[in-house]
Amino acid sequence: MSDTQQQNTARLDEEEARRQLLELAEEFYDQFEAGDIPEMTLPTRTKSNIVFDEEAGVWVYGDRTSTRSANSVRGARKLLKAVYAVEFLAQQLDEDRSSTLRELYYLSESWDSEEAQFTSQDESNQLIEDLEIVSGVTREDFHMRPEESGAKVMGPLLLREQTRRGDREIHCQDDVGQGGYQIPNNPDTIEFLDNDAEFVLCVETGGMRDRLVENGFDADRDAIVVHLGGQPARATRRLTKRLHDELDLPVVVFCDGDPWSYRIFGSVAYGSIKSAHLSEYLATPEARYVGIRPQDIVDYDLPTDPLSDSDVNALESELEDPRFKSEFWTEQIELQLDIDKKAEQQALASQGLDFVTDTYLPERLGEMGVL
User: Fold this and answer.
1) 189 vs 136: CA distance, rounded Å
2) pTM more than 0.70
């Protein structure tokens, strides 16, 4: 896609976002005019209404819906807040400005109706998610930003990024420092120009990401190293999906060896319950888990911590989780419950600082057919 085409696509996305917002406001107006009690229908946002789409390999909302109606004081307040938020977002798009989720929470303090003000940031965050669902438009197209996630990319990738000061080309090795390229809030404003990569390696922790970069793993193995920063932000997952889909690059995920890190992998590969309405936009079902595996704890006699009660409960839950219903995950989780141990990525340093880049990852990636 050319630079002009990409800019036109971005403008069309913003125009669609504004159109959908105004249509929602018009729907409320039409309900008033017809003498009906205003209401808004949404998928029921509970765990029981999240289903795993076996064909797509991602989490999606089920068929159950709930209605936000002004026939109660509580419901009326929610719709009032939605109307104020819609007006703010439409104005923001008109002015080509943006704001953070945190700023929206504080901005409501200036709204002329005290009833429309948010009582917590969780409330304002949830409303933005509601607007995404009913409009079919992402919050990025509303020009809503999360707080900085800090996620970075390092690797043989040349891209063009749209900025307010014009477009700029950046090579994610040659034009960045040791910190790497900062993933923008909306990765769809990035155009991939060229790359010499063989695969994408998503890394949970900053310490391991720094070890890989210091040891030159990205250059030696032609890898695009994506720092997940713990539970990955939407922008990080979106960029990872684009790297896979558009550049045809295998994606592997490298996390700590504990149930919570397996769920980080799950959010990259299959989506999360919180963002089930965007799974096809964010998830990469073809992503594979490289480690740390419970088998690694045994094979390399890694330093460990004992499993806590919550770890055990989480592992037992994952045995029933459709995301982990495979021979590989069943074997690994049952092994972990048996040995009653967990280990961090950095535990590989017990074998030496170069072990992870010279031995562990090359061997594992070789077994997986990635290298």
Assistant:
1) 19
2) yes
Catalytic residue IDs: 106
Task: Categorise residue 155: left if φ over 0, alpha if ψ from -120 to 50, beta otherwise.
Answer: left
Tell me: do 135 and 157 sit in the same domain: no
Residue 50's domain comprises 3-145
* Angle, helix 309-318 to helix 327-339, in steps of 10 degrees: 160
| Averaged pLDDT for residues 360-366 | 96
Residues annotated within a binding site? 204, 256
The CATH number of residue 319's host domain is 3.40.1360.10
Buried b vs exposed e over 25-64: b needs ≥16 C-beta within 10 Å? eeebeebeeeeeebebebbebeeebbebbeeebbbbbeee
Give the residue from 145, 166, 197 where a domain finishes.
145
Burial code of 302-335, b = ≥16 C-beta within 10 A, e = fewer?
A: bebeebeeebeebbeebeebebbeeeebeebbee
Residue numbers in the known binding site for Mg(2+) are 204, 256
State the average pLDDT over residues 314-335.
92
- Tally of CB atoms within 10 A around 13: 17
